[in-house]
């Protein structure tokens, strides 16, 4: 039997906490991005990559930083919450990054498509790009360090390293063959 470095009940608690936080964050994002806005006019749809970011930069430093920061931060927690809800400590770092960023990009694209039917909301391709970049940056900055910390924590609790079998506990007991009575 293989262990992931920490006890089975701890893995279940981590997955449960990650799943609850993930659902809470997704509900918050849905409320924030899909509620109708009561505005007298709306900006036109932006389907030209980086055009909105260039326009934000032309507005000046504080306003550009606020707008770009909002787009980066909206889905950034998914960079940690998706691997946390998945609950595996030992995984290929690149595969984890690709899976997480792909899920973040698809979710951002789904939000953009759903916004087309919400009054006062418009599609902005730069939001999709920045949301995806936020997920990637958060994952790259935090997840490898968290997995390494969990690995060290598991090593302190004397579990075998991930990917290795537990030490043998002796020979398997054998039961002498019992003959069938006449």
From TrEMBL:
Kindly name one Pfam family recorded for this protein.
VanZ
Name the segments for region: Disordered.
158-182
Has keyword Transmembrane?
A: yes
Name the InterPro entries on file: Teicoplanin_resist-assoc (IPR053150), VanZ-like (IPR006976)
Q: Which domain of life is it from?
A: Bacteria
User: Which organism is the protein's source?
Assistant: Streptomyces bobili
Instruction: Kindly state which keywords UniProt assigns to this record, in alphabetical order.
Output: Membrane, Transmembrane, Transmembrane helix
Q: What is this protein called?
A: VanZ family protein
| Residue spans crossing the bilayer | 12-34
Provide the VanZ-like domain boundaries.
23-140
């Amino acid at each position: 039997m293989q262990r992931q470095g920490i006890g089975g009940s701890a893995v279940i608690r981590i997955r449960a906490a990650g799943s609850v936080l993930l659902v809470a964050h997704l509900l918050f994002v849905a409320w924030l991005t899909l509620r109708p806005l009561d505005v007298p006019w709306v900006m036109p749809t932006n389907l030209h990559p980086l055009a909105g970011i260039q326009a934000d930069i032309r507005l000046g430093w504080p306003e550009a930083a606020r707008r770009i920061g909002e787009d980066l931060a909206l889905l950034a927690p998914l960079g940690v919450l998706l691997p946390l809800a998945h609950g595996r400590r030992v995984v290929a770092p690149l595969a984890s990054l690709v899976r997480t960023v792909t899920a973040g990009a698809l979710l951002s694209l789904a939000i953009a498509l759903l916004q087309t039917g919400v009054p006062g909301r418009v599609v902005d391709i730069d939001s999709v790009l920045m949301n995806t970049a936020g997920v990637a940056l958060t994952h790259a900055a935090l997840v490898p360090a968290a997995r390494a910390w969990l690995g060290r924590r598991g090593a302190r609790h004397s579990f075998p390293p991930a990917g290795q079998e537990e030490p043998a506990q002796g020979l398997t007991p054998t039961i002498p063959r019992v003959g069938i009575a006449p």
